[in-house]
Design goal:
Radius of gyration of chain A: 35 Å
Strand content of chain B: 15-25%
Strand order of the largest sheet of chain A: 2-1-3-11-12
CATH class of the largest domain in chain A: Alpha Beta
Number of strands of chain B: 9
Order of helices and strands of chain B: HHHHEHHHEEEEEHHHEEEH
CATH superfamily of the largest domain in chain A: DD-peptidase/beta-lactamase superfamily
Distance between the termini of chain B: 132 Å
Number of helices of chain A: 23
Largest sheet of chain A: 5 strands, mixed
Number of domains of chain A: 3
Strand order of the largest sheet of chain B: 5-9-8-7-6
Strand content of chain A: 5-15%
Oligomer: heterodimer
CATH architecture of the largest domain in chain A: 3-Layer(aba) Sandwich
Distance between the termini of chain A: 131 Å
């Protein structure tokens, strides 16, 4: 009976052993085929050449791929004991596989029917981090184990532990113990105290949720648990543990997460990746010298934040908690270098770059292109008169369109310069009717606007979406008197040895004659000096400047685009959900009230201590004082006069001559023909 | 079911010992893990380079090869720029899509190396001095747009401190056509009976007024600085009749250290004939060299 029982036991044992051997061999042959090759050394596995991005003022604004590997001697023994206690207490005993930990994990996973516990040794974790995805499945676990066994057979325990410490992720962007010690405690890994070491050893398990910057309580609880494990594993006495818990953690303050430069930096990285490929940026070890001026970028952020705060106090409270946003782009006119790109109020709250991606209707900021087209194609001048009046535009197949002025007020006969200063919508619509939207689009393209523009009359009021970058660049061409400089972001790229691999060269193209652009520039100076953008002067900005405000329907977008001789700056303010900006009094915010103050606050910083530089007047331009209503030479009947810049060949007629012509029936009250009359007389 | 029979207590003991031995070795010596680990280590080199670190390696290599190819392109461009031999070639070789960047030194070398006054007509040396006085000109960017060539003098930030616009027609001016050829006069189409020794040519040249001198001969510094020794001078008709019908070509042969070269200078017919008639007078005193004044190929001899 006993013998029979023994025989049965031995049979079962044989069978199981045989099955085990066959199973093991089968698993090995299935998985060993695509097991990865191990490198000859673990020392250099973390090293790749870092890519560095510099600003124009010499600041290193971003480093990608920088690692700080250290040897075991340069890591605090406290940390080594802590990490072993919590991750793999039998590290020095096993050969890559910890049977007890594995059985424990197997039991948990089988009983819960899902992978809950890894039971992985430090070697297995290293194997996973070096070669495998982070997806949890059995196949990956088996491969990971086989590679761990090979790691143990190939490298010493010290080499494995060192490699592990140098490549694990500790959260907050820190890879490796040296970087983690720097990020969390501003000290070398060698100098970590027991409590600090315990805290760091607790992070690899949950680097994002348990890190002290995100959840201080959880991270300290985890550090306590690590210390307990150390006591249990006899790496530490109870007294030392108590001492450690009583000591100060000396946690560093988190790295400034709200770096405004990141809007620019990430845009540059995206562009580089598009042009050269991702690997070029990540592993190329290149040095990118950008056009960004970090000092100005900070000023832009301060200006935007300060004014947004003021506006939010004035605006009617909304049900949704979406903050008011702003975007600002500043371009150096002479070269086209983009010096500032602010994509939002705060990078930490929203990484969406509104300076380039969020094409919003530009409102009246688009009008300069309509006016220029009319002056180019119809021979109009800033002194040409049109009637500012309510108009009705017949659109076949739909209701007539009735564009209105901002406050539904109309000035009657006014010269173009005055119309631009008042941002009269009716005049702009009349102009586009005469020149056609197609021609205006053509002009806008010459100004470097690449966004899709609607081929319809409402284009005159800026109903097509454009980005602040496009507008800043387009206005920069006006400041440059017709010279188009493609905006650029990268000045130079060098390889890791400092050899240049890319350089930006200036490619200015004179797209319009200077004397064609100058009258427009002068009209836009009028906007700032006495038009809708007059807040610029009221806020005490004294440098010669020109610009144009823009406000879209129901005050959903507020723009101010302005320039001095050296800088062109575009500012947009609005909500991401495209809701109107209505103040408590019920009025809507305008470009002058919402965006222009940011422009002024920023430009005051930019030009602090600098001389006031006038716009150069090109050859072939003359200045004339004209009657602001009739566009004729001023006389005793003139109520308001205005200085206009004109091409030298333009002759402004006296009022008498115009009256004679009117009496002769060559002119009518129709605004277009009136302007034609002036044109006929002024362009003999 | 028939189970295997255990043949006596010795068999049981052996089996027990075998298993005990295996477990003992596994428990204390990790024989299984080490066995598998060492077997994998043994055939490591046969396995593919898969996984994250190898991918990083590959990406790194790809990035470096991209950078290398960009560098090679830039180096070859630099070599091509360094190899430009004359001011005129520099301007002629410009293609609309490919701007050319030259160092300040190279540009000045080419500018002053031109055998004649053409380069100084294109850009006045006083203009260069004036640009240079700002001390921020490091390189020159040459671009071609249609019929126009832009010469931009760049500061260290690549911003042009001064720009000169040149019409491509200027490259066709007679003064621009002075060229250098390797070889002797005869190889450049000069006939023996129209070749004179330097000893005959130079005294006549010295008697001419400075304007005429500069029309037929470069600044002597051009020869002296390069260590070229003047040997002979030849005269022939222009090979291209349509270009400069009222010009003759003077070939000035010189010996350099390792080669002989000819500087070809188109000279207006009137000046050429005037000079040749003087050479004739000098020449009549020297036996063996005959001379006849030449006519324009177009037959339009004034």
């Amino acid at each position: 009976m006993i013998r029979r029982l023994g025989e049965r036991i031995i049979f079962i044992f044989y069978t199981l052993t045989l099955l085990g051997l066959l199973g093991g061999a089968g698993i090995y042959f299935v998985f060993s085929r695509d097991l990865p090759q191990l490198p000859d050394s673990l020392e250099n596995i973390n090293l790749s050449l870092p890519t560095e991005i510099y600003s124009a003022d010499g600041e290193r604004i971003k480093v990608r791929g920088q690692r700080y590997p250290v040897s075991l001697e340069d890591i605090s023994p406290n940390f080594l004991k802590a990490i072993m206690a919590v991750e793999d207490s039998n590290f020095y005993e096993h050969s890559g596989l910890d049977h007890l930990a594995l059985v424990r994990a197997l039991y948990t996973n089988v009983s819960q029917r899902q992978i809950r516990q890894g039971g992985s040794t430090i070697t297995q974790q290293l194997s996973k981090n070096l070669f495998f995805s982070f997806e949890r499945n059995w196949v990956r676990k088996i491969k990971e184990l086989l590679v761990a066994l090979q790691l143990e057979a190939t490298f010493s325990k010290e080499q494995i532990l060192e490699a592990y410490c140098n490549q694990i992720y500790f959260g907050s962007g820190a890879y490796g113990i040296e970087e983690a010690a720097q990020v969390y405690f501003h000290k070398r890994a060698k100098k970590l105290t027991l409590l600090q070491a315990a805290l760091l050893a607790g992070l690899p398990n949950s680097p994002n949720n348990a890190n002290p910057f995100n959840n201080y309580e959880r991270s300290t609880r985890r550090a306590e648990y690590v210390l307990e494990r150390m006591v249990k594993e006899q790496f530490l006495s109870q007294e030392k543990k108590e001492e450690a818990l009583d000591s100060l953690l000396e946690l560093a303050s988190p790295k400034e997460n709200d770096d405004p430069n990141l809007y620019f930096v990430n845009f540059v990285i995206d562009r580089l990746e598009q042009n050269y490929g991702k690997e070029f940026v990540r592993f190329g070890g290149i040095k990118v010298f950008t056009t960004l001026d970090t000092r100005l970028q900070r000023s832009a952020q301060r200006a935007a934040r300060s004014h947004l705060k003021t506006l939010e106090r004035k605006i009617k409270p909304r049900n949704v908690n979406i903050p008011l946003q702003a975007a600002l782009v500043a371009i150096e006119n002479q070269s086209g270098a983009v010096r500032v790109m602010l994509g939002g109020g705060s990078y930490s709250h929203s990484q969406f770059n509104r300076a380039i991606s969020d094409n919003r209707p530009s409102g009246s900021s688009f009008k300069p292109f309509v006016y220029l087209t009319a002056m180019e194609k119809l021979g109009y001048t800033p002194a040409t008169t049109l009637r500012d009046e309510p108009i009705l535009v017949d659109i076949p197949g739909t209701e007539p369109w009735e564009p209105k002025n901002f406050s539904d007020e109309y000035a009657g006969d006014i010269i173009l310069k005055k119309a631009m200063m008042r941002s009269a919508n009716s005049v702009s619509v009349k102009l586009i009717q005469e020149v056609t939207p197609r021609r205006v689009i053509k002009t806008a393209r010459l100004f470097g606007i690449t966004s899709q523009l609607g081929n319809h009359l409402s284009l005159a009021l800026g109903t097509s979406g454009v980005s602040p970058l496009e507008l800043a660049s387009a206005y920069s061409m006006i400041a440059n008197l017709g010279v188009y400089n493609k905006p650029y972001f990268i000045q130079r790229i060098e390889d890791f040895e400092g050899n240049p691999i890319y350089e930006n060269f200036y490619h200015g193209i004179q797209r319009f004659p200077q004397k064609t652009i100058y009258p427009l520039l002068d009209m836009m100076r009028g906007v700032v000096d006495g038009g809708t953008g007059n807040i610029v002067r009221r806020m005490g900005f004294k440098h010669p400047a020109a610009g144009k405000t823009g406000t879209t329907n129901n005050s959903k977008d507020a723009w101010f685009n302005g320039f001095t001789k050296d800088f062109s700056v575009s500012v947009w303010v609005g909500y991401d959900d495209n809701e109107p900006m209505i103040v408590r009094s019920g009025r809507g915010l305008t470009g002058g009230g919402a965006a222009a103050p940011i422009w002024v606050l920023f430009m005051k910083k930019v030009l602090q201590g600098k001389n006031r530089v006038k716009f150069p007047v090109p050859e072939g331009i003359k200045f004339e004082k004209v009657d602001a209503r009739s566009g004729t030479l001023p006389d005793e009947q003139s109520v308001e006069t205005m200085n206009v810049a004109l091409k030298e060949e333009v002759i402004i007629p006296p009022r008498v001559l115009e009256l004679e012509k009117t009496q002769l029936g060559q002119a009518s009250v129709n605004s277009t023909t009136t302007s034609e009359l002036v044109d006929v007389v002024s362009n003999p | 079911m028939k189970f295997p029979r255990i043949k006596g207590p010795r068999g049981v003991a052996l089996i027990f010992l075998a298993f005990f031995g295996f477990f003992f070795l596994e428990f204390y010596g990790k024989i299984f893990e080490r066995g598998v680990g060492n077997y994998l280590k043994w055939q490591n080199s046969e396995r593919p380079q898969l996984g994250r670190i190898w991918e990083r390696d590959r990406q790194g290599i790809l990035a470096q090869s991209k950078i290398q190819s960009i560098r090679l392109g830039l180096d070859s461009l630099q070599e091509a720029t360094d190899a430009i031999g004359s001011f005129k070639t520099m301007l002629e070789g410009l293609e609309p899509a490919f701007p050319l960047v030259l160092s300040r030194q190279k540009f000045l070398d080419l500018y002053y190396d031109f055998p004649g006054q053409w380069s100084t007509i294109v850009i006045s040396p006083f203009e260069l001095i004036s640009i240079d006085s700002q001390k921020n000109w490091t390189r020159v960017l040459l671009k071609r747009f249609g019929q126009w060539i832009t010469i931009g003098f760049l500061d260290p930030k690549n911003i042009p401190v001064h720009e000169i616009f040149l019409e491509t027609d200027a490259l066709e001016e007679v003064l621009a056509t002075r060229t250098v050829k390797r070889g002797r006069l005869e190889e450049s189409g000069f006939e023996e009976d129209r070749v004179y020794s330097a000893a005959v040519f130079l005294p006549v040249l010295r008697t001419l007024d400075p304007k005429t001198q500069s029309a037929v001969f470069p600044d002597p510094r051009w020869f002296l600085a390069k260590g070229y020794s003047l040997t002979r001078v030849g005269v022939r008709e222009s090979a291209s009749e349509s270009d400069f019908p009222r010009h003759l070509i003077f070939g000035i042969e010189y010996d350099a250290d390792y080669h002989t070269g000819v500087l070809l200078i188109p000279v207006p017919l009137e000046i050429a004939n005037n000079m040749l008639s003087q050479i004739e007078r000098t020449d009549s005193e020297l036996p063996g060299e005959e001379f006849t004044t030449m006519t324009s190929p177009s037959g339009d001899n004034p």
